[in-house]
Amino acid sequence: MSTVDSTRIGFRDALLKLASEREDVVFVSTDSLKVVKGEPFLEQFPDRVVELGISEQNGVGVCSGLASSGLLPYICTYAGFLTMRACEQMRTFVSYPNLKVRFVGANGGLHGGNREGVSHQFIEDVGILRGMPNFTILCPADGGQVYEAMLASADIDGPVYIRIGSGREDKVFPDGTPFPLGKIRMLSDEGDDVALLAHGFVLGRVIEAAKRLKAEGIKAKVVEVATIKPLDKQGLIEVLHSTGCAVTVEDHTIINGLGSAVAEVIAENVPAHLIRLGLQDVYGESGFPEELLDAYGMRIEDIVAAAKTAVAHKKQ
Amino acid sequence: MDIQALEEISLSLRRDVVEMVYRTKDGHPSPSFSVADIITSLYFEVMRLDPSNPDWEDRDRFVLSKGHSCPVLYAALAKKGFFPREELFSLRYLNSHLQGHPYAPKTKGLDATTGSLGNGVSIGLGMALAARIRKKAYQVYAITGDGELGEGMIWEAAMAASHHKASNLTVFIDNNNYQSGGTVGEISGPYPIEDKWKAFGWHVQTIDGHDIAQILKAVKNAHQVEDKPSAIVCKTIKGNGVSFMIGENSWHKRVYTEEEYKQAIKELGGAV
Q1: Chains A, B: CB contacts under 8 A, how many?
Q2: A12 vs A164, A313, B19, CA distance in Å?
Q3: Which fold has domain A185-315?
């Protein structure tokens, strides 16, 4: 495998590998093949590309028929065109009958949508799907992790959603690092002052924030929560029990995403002060990816400040 | 099976629907009646099925896009032997495998989950394309309503199906001229139906949807078409076979009184 230098290539390369190993894999495109540089898939497996043109609701309906007839369809297009335009099709015709359809949502978050603006920046996708029974929701942090998440999730019973970006993501993990399906992953553990919980394309910032906190004498745990559903509640309870406070960082609205999921765990299981960073119930705008994260409250300084506030609150 | 025997089955399925709605006090009777002859033709003459092996990979598939007509589909599945007839009378009750709208994982013999209108042609197209990819010879049939043609997704699927030359997909349009709120002419204006499907590249036939010989001939014609999906516009009557239901759209979803129940069964050739 060559270097997986973006989430879109990670998706495509994993799909090529899966298709070469099993005959049931098909790629359902809603004029989205080019988006993931899928031309090699079309060349190698022309009979396993279902091109439907720009029609996402139809695309998900077709996936329902394909999956109920023994195939494993992967439909990849912009995250919101799946989770919003085809929301009901995902619910009633895939999630409800628990069919094995794989949804790969591009342009996840401000980082993923970047200069395209709000119509192509999807900050609600995870929250929309979290309320649908049977769904597995995965938010890998970089191209290599998308590749691994694709392979790790191929045999999951029922629907799977994998959030990818624009192709402009920094690498966080060396290629070949396994994807921790269904489990949280401790990335660094300096102590029990505060837990920094995150997924996706902000993970590098969180790792950097922990280093700065360490320099200031605050001992943080950095925990990746890449499987949003089913949530590793037990793993989170253990972390929250030891730190007593946490900061969630997500390139998503803080409503219904990671921050909400962690708040639910806290409310039901383990008292802890929580600060949620992410989109604060606002839309984004056009801009460069890293610039957008800065502008919407996800600077490294914001994470450091939130961690200090959380720690201070705990001590009160 | 000869036409007369099929007509008798259609009557018996409609009697089952009357009894289901009467006994369970819920369900959509007249939308079931307009598709009764199509479903009878498919399940008792056309489709290759094995009730002892409901998940047989090579079976023909059926998608009831207008899922609210499911009482008559359930009656057909029971009569085929997928499950005991007595279970029909658990319709819409807690713990029943017969949901208010079709749910494939629970009901033996059911190929697709439907209910929300406009989705069945896409699901059928997926099944039809899967046959091509998996090199299977099965056929896929779907029924949509005429009011349902207002859903844009029908036309997304229509365009894609003809683009893919999905000739193993046949869609019946149940043109009973009514939708929930009134006549389709008043509410949504789908006419001319045939021209729309033709414009989308489909092979189109128009038949009397209560003439089983015409239905069977139209299916045979559809099988001859090699490069297009087929639409069969069926002129039908909502409530067909029961005088007081015809032209009275409240029977879209209404429960029979004891007197109405007895009369309906009688008009459909049964004895109470």
Answers
A1: 105
A2: 11, 45, 54
A3: Rossmann fold (3.40.50)
